[in-house]
Design goal:
Chain A: Residues 30-92 form the DUF4325 domain. The complex is a heterodimer of chains A (113) and B (180). Chain A is an alpha/beta fold. Chain A is 54% helix and 17% strand. The radius of gyration of chain B is 27 Å and the shape is rod-shaped.
Chain lengths: 113, 180
């Protein structure tokens, strides 16, 4: 059941300050694990989900692509993701990550058609 | 007598105006030099961080590996350092010009270096990727050189301008004294 509430996921606090890797086989805090254990369940249960990107030790594009681009391969549409998922970043690198995530979602969407 | 006083007063006023113009020109030149120095220091820092990133990234992708997560983390930190330093250059857009191409290089480097099997449990060496990293780092440095040239051009423009203004004032004051 989807509530009208907003769920905030602070990756550094709620997942790991050191996220790394693409697949679950790559390590304990991979993009795939973040998507399947935290992000996708939140999108299933809440009307909007905010993801805070600051305060981690940074992300590889392998992590970000799998975590966010993987939502498309999971069956969600880019439109749905853009309407329900909000990214929060204040640092210069965080802002780059934010733009990259939007790009990975768009790229995965193009590939899925 | 009154005419002599007028002449003396005019000379004093002219001299003062010349001195003030000279001080203003020197102040402007000094300020321009300081700003240009600050910008060049930032460009130096970006180049240094980009060089470290290049070395680490090439080493990472030149060899197959497993369990070298600290190297991967170092690469991400270096990339973030480059991003933060380039971001600090945005305050000086008038002097360094458009940073669009620098930013495009940094974005491409991010995808190239930290994509595919980056931070994977086992990683194969990828010589094509190494060649691409080299090429992109060369492009990045070339765009930074362009920014550096623009800063120098800006510095010389203001230097020339302040010198010519100062000379014009000297000439004006000299002519005023000669007329009197």
């Amino acid at each position: 059941m989807v509530t009208n509430q907003t769920k905030t996921i602070d990756i550094a606090k709620d997942f790991s300050p050191v996220p790394a890797g693409r697949h679950v086989s790559d390590g304990d805090y991979s993009g795939e694990f973040f998507r399947t254990s935290i992000l996708r369940p939140a999108l299933n249960s809440f009307a909007t989900v905010e993801v805070v990107l600051d305060n981690t030790e940074g992300f590889g594009s392998s992590f970000l692509e799998e975590a966010f681009g993987g939502l498309i391969r999971d069956g969600l549409s880019a439109q749905y993701i853009n309407e329900h998922l909000f990214l929060i970043a204040n640092s210069p690198a965080g802002k780059r990550y934010k733009a990259k995530i939007r790009q990975y979602i768009a790229d995965a969407s193009k590939l899925s058609h | 007598m009154a005419a002599a006083w007028d002449g003396t007063l005019a000379a004093i006023v002219g001299g003062l105006a010349g001195a003030i113009a000279g001080i203003a020109a020197t102040t402007l030149t000094n300020k321009t030099n300081r700003t240009a120095g600050r910008i060049e220091k930032r460009i130096d820092d970006i180049e240094a961080a980009a060089e470290l990133l290049r070395v680490e990234a090439i080493s990472y992708w030149s060899t197959a590996g497993a369990g070298d997560s600290s190297v991967a983390r170092k690469i991400i930190t270096l990339w973030e350092t480059v991003v933060t330093k380039v971001d600090s250059l945005e305050d000086f857009k008038n002097q360094v010009g458009d940073l669009g191409q620098v930013n495009a290089c940094i974005d491409k480097l991010y995808d190239l270096i930290t994509g595919s099997d980056f931070q994977a449990k086992y990683r194969s060496a990828d010589q094509d990727k190494v060649a691409e990293i080299r090429g992109l780092c060369t492009s990045l440095c070339s765009h930074l050189h362009t920014s550096r040239r623009l800063v120098n051009r800006w510095r010389h423009f203001w230097k020339r301008r302040s010198i010519s203004k100062s000379q014009a004032n000297d000439r004006k004051n000299g002519k005023a004294s000669e007329v009197r």
